[in-house]
Write a structure and sequence with these properties.
The strands form 2 sheets. Strands 1, 2, 3, 4, 5, 6 and 7 form a 7-stranded mixed beta sheet that branches. It is built from 25 helices and 12 strands. Helix content is 64%, strand content 11%.
Length: 723
C-alpha cells in the first residue's frame, strides 16, 4: 500500500525520461522491455524469465549500466510480487554496481525500494538507513522526492513511539492541496494520523482522519491501502459502539483482501515461483562447476607452491619456538593487566558512588539553605518597604545584595547538580531565535550602560525566524556569557554574532559567538576556565565578584545540547566564546508572550489561605500579603489545609508549601482537587534536585513561586492567577 506511489515514481524517473529507441533483438534493453510488457499483461512468470535473461546477457557484455538496468528490472518484479527478501538482495547488488558510476535516479530508487522492503519486514533501523541514502542521492541530483520520504520518516517515528514528531510530518503532507498529484501519499498520511489518534483513544478524531483517507483513496484506487483503512474504520467504530458500521467496514475489508489474494495468485503461481528459483539455483550450480574445473587446473600449480610452503613452514617453526616463549611472557602480562583493569573498575564504581553522594549532599544543602534565606530576603524587603532611617538603608541594601548573591550561588550549584545527575531533559518547542536574542539584549542593556559598553547583535538574515529547540537552556547559555562579557569590559564593546553554517530540509546549524574587548584571559588559565569556581585569579574574583560557576554551567549545557564551546582570548584585547548547535526547523508561528501588568487594586481585599509550617516564613508571607491589602489565614500542615478548604471555601487563592510535615503539599493539593477544581493553588517551593515545575503542576497546582521570594515576581504570579 505505501509503495504504490513509489512504483509510479520510479517508472517515470527511469523509463519516462528516456528517448524512444529501436532495440535490437538479443540485447539487454530488449529483454527488459519484454519483462515490462509481460508484467503489464499480468504474466509475471515470463517477466521473471526475461529479467533474468537480461542479467545473463549483461554479464556477457560486461557493461555496468546494462547490468544495473537488468538487476533493477528483476528487483522491481520481486518488489511487486512482495518477495521482499529476494528484492533486497537484488536491489543491493544493483546499488553496489551504480556506486561505481556518477549518481543517478535509479541508484536513489534502489535505496528507497530497499527501505520499503525493510519497512514491510519490520526492520526499521535498516529501512531508515536506506531512506537516508536515497535522500542523499536525490539531494545531489536536485530531485524533489520529499513527500514519499517524509511519509516514510513519519512512519518510522511512529514505530519508535515518537508520535509528536510523526504527527508533525504527517500534517505537513496533509496540508498539501488536493490538486497536487500526491493522492496516495496524502491518503497514507491521513491513515497514519488515524492510527495515532486511535492509539490515543481519540476515536472520533481517528474516524475523521480515516474517512478523509478513504475519500482520497478513491482517486488512486490503492486496494492494499483501502483494505487497511476499512479495517481501522471497523475497529474504531466498534470502540464507539457503532456496531453496524463496524460490521459493514469489516465485511468490505474482507472482500478486498480476498480480491487482493486472488490477484496475487493470478500474478504468479507458487509452483511457478519455486520452479524459477530452482532453475536459477541450477544455473548457479552449473557456473560453480565450471569454476571448479578451472580451479582444478590451478591445483597443479598449487602443489608446487605447497612444496615451497613446507620449506617455508620449517623455517617458520624455528621462529614459532621463539614466539612461544614470548607468548608465555605476554600471557603473564595480560593476567597482570586484567587484575589492574579489575582494580580500575572497582575504583570507577567507587568514584561514581562518591559523585552521586556528593550531588545528593549538595542538592540537600542547597535546598535547605533556601528556607532561612527566604526569611532573610523577605524580612530585608519588608524593612526596606517600612521607610527605614537613611543610615539604616545602606546596611539593608548590603544585606539584600548579600542575600541575592547567596541565592545566585545556591541556584548555580543546584543547576550543576541537575545536569550532572542526568535529571534534566531537553525541550523541543518552536521559538523565535531572533526575538529571544533581542529580548536578552533589552534585559541587559542596563548592565551594559553601567560600564559604558556598546552592546550589539549581529544576526545572519538567512537564519530561519522559527526554530525547534530548548529556548530556556539557550537563554541560560547566552545570559551567562553576555553577563561575563559586560562585567569584564569597560568603555568597550560586546557583540553577539549568530551565523548560518549549514541548512538541510529539517535542520539549521548555527555558529554563535560572544565577543568582547575586555580584560582577556591569560593563556595559562584558558584550559581551566570552564572548571567550577575558576575565575582566572583571586584578584579578579575580588575585583569583579561572581561565583565562578557560570562558565561551568555554560559548558555543561552546550554539551547537553550537542555542541562544543571554545574560546580565544588575549590579555588586554578581549575574549571570544563560540559554539555551534543544530536546531530543527520550526513549522509554526510563535505567539508572543502576553505581558501581565497589574495594579494593587487586583490584590486588595482578596482572601488567601497560606499553608506553611515554618513560623518565620509564615510571618514574612503574611506581612507581604497584608502590605498589599490582602487578608490571610495560616495553617501549618496539609491535613488541616484539606479540612479548612472543605469546611470554609471562601478563599480566593491558596499558597501551598510543598514540603510539609505529615502529607506534603502535592498530596494535599491532589485531595483538595477532588472537591475543589477551580480555586488557584500556587506551590511555594525551594525546588530540589528531583523537582521541576511540570511535576508540581501535574498534581493539580496552578502555578509555582520559588523560594526565596523575589517580591515583584511574588505579587505578579498571585495577580496573574486572580485575574
Amino acid at each position: 500500500m505505501r509503495w504504490l506511489f513509489f512504483i509510479l515514481l520510479f517508472h517515470t524517473l527511469c523509463f519516462g525520461q528516456r528517448k524512444v529507441i529501436t532495440t535490437a533483438v538479443d540485447s539487454t534493453a530488449y529483454y527488459i522491455e519484454l519483462s515490462h510488457f509481460n508484467k503489464k499483461i499480468n504474466n509475471y512468470k515470463s517477466s521473471l524469465f526475461f529479467s533474468q535473461k537480461a542479467i545473463n546477457y549483461a554479464k556477457v557484455k560486461g557493461d555496468t549500466q546494462q547490468k544495473s538496468d537488468a538487476l533493477f528490472s528483476l528487483g522491481s518484479t520481486y518488489f511487486e510480487l512482495k518477495k521482499y527478501n529476494d528484492a533486497v538482495e537484488i536491489f543491493a547488488k544493483c546499488a553496489a554496481l551504480l556506486s561505481s558510476i556518477p549518481p543517478t535516479s535509479q541508484q536513489a530508487i534502489c535505496y528507497y525500494n530497499m527501505g520499503m522492503c525493510y519497512m514491510n519486514l519490520d526492520d526499521f533501523a535498516k529501512a531508515e538507513l536506506n531512506f537516508n541514502k536515497a535522500q542523499a542521492v536525490y539531494n545531489i541530483l536536485k530531485i524533489d522526492a520529499s513527500e514519499p520520504l517524509k511519509l516514510q520518516k513519519g512512519i518510522l517515528y511512529k514505530n519508535k513511539g515518537k508520535t509528536e514528531l510523526a504527527s508533525k510530518l504527517f500534517n505537513e503532507i496533509i496540508s498539501k492541496s488536493d490538486l497536487e498529484d500526491i493522492y496516495n501519499t496524502k491518503a497514507e498520511a491521513l491513515y497514519q494520523m488515524g492510527i495515532i489518534e486511535e492509539s490515543l483513544n481519540h476515536n472520533n478524531l481517528a474516524i475523521n482522519y480515516l474517512n478523509r483517507a478513504l475519500a482520497l483513496n478513491v482517486r488512486d484506487n490503492n486496494l492494499d491501502q483501502k483494505a487497511n483503512i476499512l479495517l481501522s474504520l471497523s475497529r474504531t467504530n466498534e470502540k464507539l459502539l457503532n456496531l453496524k458500521k463496524s460490521h459493514d467496514y469489516l465485511k468490505e475489508h474482507l472482500a478486498i483482501k480476498d480480491s487482493l489474494q486472488l490477484m496475487s495468485n493470478q500474478k504468479l503461481d507458487a509452483n511457478d515461483y519455486q520452479e524459477f528459483k530452482e532453475s536459477e539455483r541450477m544455473k548457479a550450480l552449473e557456473q560453480m562447476t565450471k569454476e571448479n574445473e578451472a580451479q582444478q587446473k590451478t591445483n597443479k600449480f598449487v602443489k608446487l607452491i605447497s612444496i615451497l610452503a613446507i620449506a617455508l613452514i620449517s623455517i617458520l617453526s624455528l621462529l614459532s619456538l621463539s614466539l612461544y616463549k614470548n607468548n608465555i611472557i605476554r600471557t603473564r602480562s595480560n593476567e597482570l593487566l586484567q587484575e589492574k583493569n579489575l582494580e580500575l573498575q572497582m575504583a570507577k564504581e567507587k568514584a561514581e558512588k562518591a559523585s552521586k553522594a556528593r550531588a545528593e549532599f549538595l542538592s540537600t544543602v542547597s535546598h535547605e539553605l533556601r528556607t532561612p534565606l527566604n526569611a532573610i530576603n523577605g524580612i530585608t524587603h519588608l524593612l526596606i518597604e517600612d521607610n527605614p532611617k537613611q543610615n539604616q538603608l545602606h546596611y539593608l541594601n548590603s544585606l539584600k545584595f548579600s542575600g541575592n548573591y547567596l541565592l545566585t550561588f545556591i541556584n548555580e550549584i543546584l543547576e550543576i547538580n541537575r545536569i550532572d545527575s542526568n535529571n534534566i531533559e531537553i525541550e523541543y518547542i518552536d521559538f523565535n531565535l531572533k526575538q529571544l536574542l533581542t529580548d536578552i539584549q533589552n534585559s541587559m542593556n542596563e548592565i551594559a550602560s553601567k560600564n559604558n559598553n556598546k552592546f550589539t547583535l549581529d544576526i545572519d538574515e538567512k537564519i530561519p525566524e522559527i526554530v525547534l529547540g530548548d529556548p530556556t537552556k539557550l537563554s541560560q547559555i547566552f545570559i551567562n556569557l553576555i553577563n561575563n562579557a559586560l562585567k569584564f569590559t569597560q568603555n568597550g564593546e560586546v557583540n553577539v554574532i549568530a551565523k548560518l553554517v549549514d541548512q538541510g530540509s529539517d535542520f539549521t546549524r548555527i555558529n554563535f559567538e560572544i565577543r568582547d574587548t575586555g580584560i582577556g584571559i591569560p593563556e595559562e588559565k584558558q584550559e581551566t576556565i570552564f572548571d567550577s569556581f575558576s575565575q582566572g585569579s583571586i584578584e579578579i574574583n575580588r575585583k569583579y565578584g561572581g561565583t565562578g560557576l557560570g562558565l561551568t554551567i555554560v559548558k555543561k549545557l552546550v554539551d547537553l545540547l550537542g555542541g562544543e564551546i571554545g574560546l580565544k582570548s588575549e590579555v588586554g584585547l578581549g575574549t571570544s566564546f563560540a559554539f555551534e548547535l543544530n536546531l530543527l526547523n520550526g513549522s509554526q508561528k510563535v505567539q508572543p508572550e502576553k505581558q501581565i501588568f497589574y495594579t494593587d487594586d487586583i490584590l486588595v481585599g482578596k482572601n488567601v489561605l497560606v499553608v506553611e509550617d515554618n513560623k518565620i516564613n509564615q510571618m514574612v508571607t503574611k506581612k507581604m500579603l497584608e502590605n498589599k491589602g490582602m487578608k490571610c489565614k495560616i495553617v501549618d500542615n496539609g491535613e488541616e489545609a484539606i479540612e479548612v478548604m472543605r469546611a470554609k471555601n471562601d478563599f480566593d487563592l491558596v499558597l501551598m508549601d510543598v514540603h510539609l510535615p505529615g502529607i506534603n503539599g502535592t498530596i494535599a493539593t491532589q485531595n483538595i482537587r477532588e472537591f475543589e477544581t477551580k480555586k488557584p493553588i500556587i506551590a511555594l517551593t525551594a525546588i530540589s534536585l528531583n523537582e521541576n515545575r511540570e511535576m508540581l503542576l501535574s498534581f493539580g497546582m496552578t502555578d509555582v513561586i520559588t523560594k526565596p521570594f523575589e517580591p515583584e515576581n511574588f505579587y505578579r504570579v498571585i495577580a496573574q492567577n486572580l485575574v
